[in-house]
């Protein structure tokens, strides 16, 4: 089919094989496929009221995508008609056969008869309807053809019909040569493969008309926004866009879709190239000037600079983004464009400018920009350590704007941000509630049937948090199911796939560390680093620490600490400080660990990171235990253990209960005999709880330590049978796991 269309010189856009620059100067032209549609409409008019109502409804629903979509082979068109009305499909085939096997005058007569559909007091087709406009376009396009172009169209129609007959001949021979089971299997395979052949279908049809191209671009842009899995793959879509641009290099919308497509695969060079071409073509074609008068040229320039700044910001090129942003602001100020200025202020990382932008956006009646400004302010203040209650009040105000103006996308973003804020503050229960709220919502946007409504970044973020929450509670099967759903909803080539890739790697890393398989955890570090360099370096240090390579881990953590302090990543700074303190414990430098822990505690309280503050207090309690003041350690444990048990991961709960048991045993040394027995029995009860938590996440090293501790306590209490049971379980784990020679009392986690 490709060779047929390339040889059609009846296409008014081609002269002697050279494509004119304005390929869409004429909105439509006649092709064999469109002639088949004309035959279908003619037969539908002849059938009239004889068609059953149900079949007529099916055909009416089929017509619009057939008229707007690209050309398809005859066998596919015939199959689509047969699914709606088999007798009509047979009539269309017979009519096309008579025309293809007849003479040229038969085709001429067919186009002459098309005008009859508009005649009479009650015409079959209204001139202004979708079908009427299509018929009129085809009649006009056919009347403009020269005799040689008409002949080439007739030849193309014959080839179009003959290719369908050849396919039917192959199918019939296959039916004769294959048995029934093989034929059924082949038919099932063809049915399964049919929806996937759209890429071949588009690529085999040569240049599209203006309406077909506009429909294709709007359809793909809508799918990229609402359901990326239904859109063409990045490589296939780029191939089609290159084909469109080959016939019309000045098609600005195709350049913009190419820009969006390159963003999916994080191709900074190609996306920048396409974005600049889009605005260049927009200015050259005068599209902006027509809609905006003399202001169109300047408007394109300032929005080009603004989009370029956003692009550089997305890829982390902040210096280039700032230069482009300054240019956009300068042009916007010269043109007194307040809307563009408010867009520019959204990119700045300044609370004062954002507050000013929110007020201006509300003044100029721009609720979308005002809400985006509030979201940015909330995010900045969350990182600055503002109270959660104030942030939620601000988000409540933005939610009022969303529901008032039906801003569906911003509603999703707001709920996803609430989920992330509760996670940042260590309130996993509240984060889980917000995640479930978003997942149970329906989008307010109207989308086509069969298109997922919620394949947006907000849903990817929420599902990733949900997977991590389940993994932290030991529900690894549920987390795997969520990640599997994420992989189906956001394939690896999609623009939001990096989110679930990172969470997947992190969950696998934690499982490997809990299981003591440090070589597997080390192999996962490279993947995490590729997706997030800071997380990768931190986890590399954790592996080195677990392998007792203390000096290497310390050097890596010190470098990471300096970098995180420079970029103001407070959450990671606190985590690094806790890891450095643990290195000091393992090296028996207990007094050096205390200032580090106090620094971490001050930061976590300053930035309202409650869960990290609780973890820091647990570490301080462990330091006091090591320094010989277990009573004081028990006192501060009661302050910190409640948030850990309410919102913490299962591993942290187990470590907290294990630490309580250690402090109880150490404090019982000075008790009276009866009180000592009660304290040891209470410690055994806490160890049983810790053992349950560790078993849930398959943390064998911690289980081994708990069993050893329990065996010692049972021995002290004279419970021989229980002691022997714990000793046997300890021996099994001890033989399975390597011993690193670290004293039991010197390990909190």
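Q: What amino acid sequence fits the structure above?
A:
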């Amino acid at each position: 089919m490709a060779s047929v269309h390339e040889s059609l010189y009846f296409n008014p856009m081609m002269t002697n094989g050279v494509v004119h620059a304005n390929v869409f100067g004429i909105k439509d032209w006649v092709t064999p496929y469109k002639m088949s549609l004309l035959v279908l409409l003619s037969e539908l008019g002849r059938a009239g009221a004889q068609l059953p109502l149900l079949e007529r409804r099916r055909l009416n629903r089929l017509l619009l995508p057939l008229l707007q979509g690209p050309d398809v082979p005859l066998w596919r068109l015939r199959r689509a008609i047969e699914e709606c009305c088999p007798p009509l499909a047979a009539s269309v085939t017979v009519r096309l056969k008579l025309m293809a096997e007849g003479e040229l005058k038969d085709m001429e007569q067919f186009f002459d008869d098309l005008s009859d559909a508009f005649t009479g007091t009650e015409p079959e087709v209204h001139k202004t309807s979708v079908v009427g406009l299509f018929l009129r376009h085809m009649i006009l396009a056919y009347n403009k053809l020269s005799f040689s172009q008409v002949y080439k169209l007739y030849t193309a129609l014959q080839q179009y019909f003959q290719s369908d007959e050849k396919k039917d001949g192959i199918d019939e021979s296959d039916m004769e040569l294959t048995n029934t089971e093989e034929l059924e299997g082949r038919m099932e395979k063809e049915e399964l493969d049919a929806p996937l052949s759209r890429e071949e279908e588009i690529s085999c049809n040569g240049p599209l008309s203006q309406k077909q191209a506009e429909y294709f671009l709007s359809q793909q842009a809508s799918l990229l926004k609402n359901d990326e899995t239904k859109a063409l793959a990045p490589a296939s879509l780029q191939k089609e866009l290159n084909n469109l641009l080959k016939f019309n290099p000045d098609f600005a919308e195709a350049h913009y879709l190419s820009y969006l497509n390159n963003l999916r695969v994080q191709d900074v060079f190609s996306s920048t190239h396409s974005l600049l071409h889009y605005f260049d073509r927009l200015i050259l074609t005068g599209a902006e000037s027509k809609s905006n008068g003399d202001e169109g040229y300047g408007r394109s320039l300032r929005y080009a600079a603004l989009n370029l700044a956003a692009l550089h910001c997305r890829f982390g090129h902040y210096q280039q983004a700032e230069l482009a942003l300054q240019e956009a602001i300068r042009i916007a100020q010269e043109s007194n464009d307040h809307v563009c200025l408010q867009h520019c202020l959204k990119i700045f990382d300044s609370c004062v400018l954002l507050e000013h932008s929110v007020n201006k956006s509300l003044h100029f009646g721009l609720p979308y920009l005002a809400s985006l400004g509030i979201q940015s302010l909330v995010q900045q203040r969350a990182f600055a350590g503002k109270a959660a209650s104030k942030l939620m009040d601000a988000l409540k105000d933005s939610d009022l704007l969303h529901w008032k103006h039906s801003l569906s996308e911003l509603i999703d973003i707001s709920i996803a941000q609430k989920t992330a804020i509760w996670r940042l503050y260590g309130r996993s229960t509240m984060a889980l509630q917000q995640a479930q709220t978003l997942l149970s919502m329906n989008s307010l946007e109207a989308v086509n049937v069969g298109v997922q409504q919620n394949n947006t970044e907000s849903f990817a973020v929420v599902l990733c948090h949900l997977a991590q929450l389940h993994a932290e509670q030991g529900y690894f099967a549920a987390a795997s199911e969520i990640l599997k759903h994420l992989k189906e909803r956001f394939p690896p080539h999609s623009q939001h796939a990096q989110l679930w890739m990172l969470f997947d790697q992190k969950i696998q890393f934690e499982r490997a560390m809990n299981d003591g398989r440090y070589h597997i955890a080390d192999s996962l570090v490279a993947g995490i680093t590729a997706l997030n360099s800071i997380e990768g370096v931190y986890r590399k240090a954790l592996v080195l620490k677990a392998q007792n390579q203390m000096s290497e881990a310390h050097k890596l953590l010190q470098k990471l600490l300096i970098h995180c302090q420079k970029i103001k990543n407070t959450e990671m700074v606190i985590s690094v400080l806790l890891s450095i303190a643990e290195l000091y414990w393992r090296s028996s430098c207990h007094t050096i660990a205390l200032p580090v822990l106090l620094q971490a505690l001050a930061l976590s309280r300053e930035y309202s990171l409650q869960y990290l503050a609780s973890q820091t207090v647990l570490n301080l309690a462990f330091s006091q235990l090591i320094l010989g003041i277990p009573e004081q350690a028990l006192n501060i444990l009661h302050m910190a253990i409640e948030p850990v048990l309410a919102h913490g991961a299962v591993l942290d709960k187990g470590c907290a209960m294990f630490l309580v048991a250690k402090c109880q045993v150490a404090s019982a040394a000075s008790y009276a005999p009866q009180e000592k027995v009660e304290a040891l029995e209470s410690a055994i009860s806490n160890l049983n709880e810790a053992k349950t938590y560790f078993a849930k996440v398959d943390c064998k090293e911690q289980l081994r330590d708990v069993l050893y501790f329990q065996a010692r306590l049972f021995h002290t209490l004279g419970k021989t049978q229980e002691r022997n049971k714990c000793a046997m379980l300890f021996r099994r784990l001890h033989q399975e796991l390597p011993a690193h020679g670290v004293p039991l009392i010197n390990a909190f986690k």
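Q: And what stands out in the fold?
A: The longest strand covers residues 14-15.
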